[in-house]
Amino acid sequence: MADFYQNGIVTTLHNLENRPIEALEKELVGFSKRRPMGLILPSLYSELEGKALLGTIEHIKKVPYLQQIVIGLDQADQSQFEHALAFFSGLPQNHRILWNDGPRLKALDEELQKLGLAPKEMGKGRNVWYCMGFILASNKVESVALHDCDILTYDRSLLARLIYPVANPQFNYEFCKGYYARVADGKINGRVSRLLVTPLLRALKNTLGQNDYLDFMDSFRYPLAGEFSFRRDVLNDLRIPSDWGLEIGVLSEMHRNYSRNRLCQADIAHTYDHKHQDLSLHNDQGGLSKMSIDITKALFRKLATQGTVFSNETFRTIKATYFRIALDFVETYHNDAIMNGLKLDIHSEEKAVELFAQNIMKAGSSFLDNPMETPFIPSWNRVVSAKPNVLACLKTAVEEDYAEYSRQ
């Protein structure tokens, strides 16, 4: 059972009563008459072969309030795309699959590349960006939820609680961030959020002084959650990173574009587990190591846009401050685990902290060495300005892929 405490400067919507899913969905069906609802599912083809997505789809089939589902499919050849069409065909809701590796969408991507307007690297950010474009192009829904496809503990109440704040016409929220306890198999998970993001935000406050952006980011209980929802108009002016900084980048954009009373976070699940990334101690181009560098650079870039001046000396101070705070957090989480009968390996936790401390310095060096680095994908407003028919082209490509291959 959650508490009702409002921490930080962002509204928190708790799960206080374990409300039956049927009651939530009945309300959402009513809301859908005024605010039609959609769902974005960014997926790798490999996730169609795992049990997590199969279970997720079985739950989504029972959701009565969705008018549209948009699936972004990465790393799939033609036969795999055809398999994906069959895999998702059981969904009773209107749905379309963006075959991102197919010839039609690749041709559109190449056109945007020539204009300097396409995502520069493959990954979740690119997938999500094109899905958002299709939502704008099809103009079917007003409120949209997004969640990952590797959730092992999925229940359709997660979706209901995630989309409710932006679907309820009596609420004025433009954006909702989901949060949950990362506890599964008798242990506390979520290392990057627990051992990097929160202590780094506290270290930045200590080093740079109080800052509205840092207070804002520190208000989110699980800033790296891949689940969020938004009103459709949010998509037009959203500039998101194409790397592992996606979640931090989305929150940064919300801070830039909206008043705090238009944003919230919601408790969406009692338990949550998904596939786990390797720590990658000896490879900073993979796993949690690369993730930590990308996330740290995203924070540095945002602070720089507000006038913060960084130097090697500043990064050394931030790293030292972070290291002490993070080690204190290890003890805190260890005590929390013991009291709840959970496991937490102090040695592996401190190894992660040591790696993240090193990567703060790597992120700082990269930031100073590449001042013109811009991993952000252009907003759809900018793309439409440069290529006015782009959304129509995107919609046509997706519909033609569906018409051609769903018959085979």
Automatic annotation (TrEMBL):
The keyword Transferase applies. InterPro entries: Nucleotide-diphossugar_trans. Gene3D superfamilies: Spore Coat Polysaccharide Biosynthesis Protein SpsA, Chain A (3.90.550.10). GO terms for molecular function: transferase activity. Keywords: Transferase. It comes from the Bacteria. This is Cell wall biogenesis glycosyltransferase. The lineage of its organism: Bacteria, Pseudomonadati, Pseudomonadota, Gammaproteobacteria, Alteromonadales.
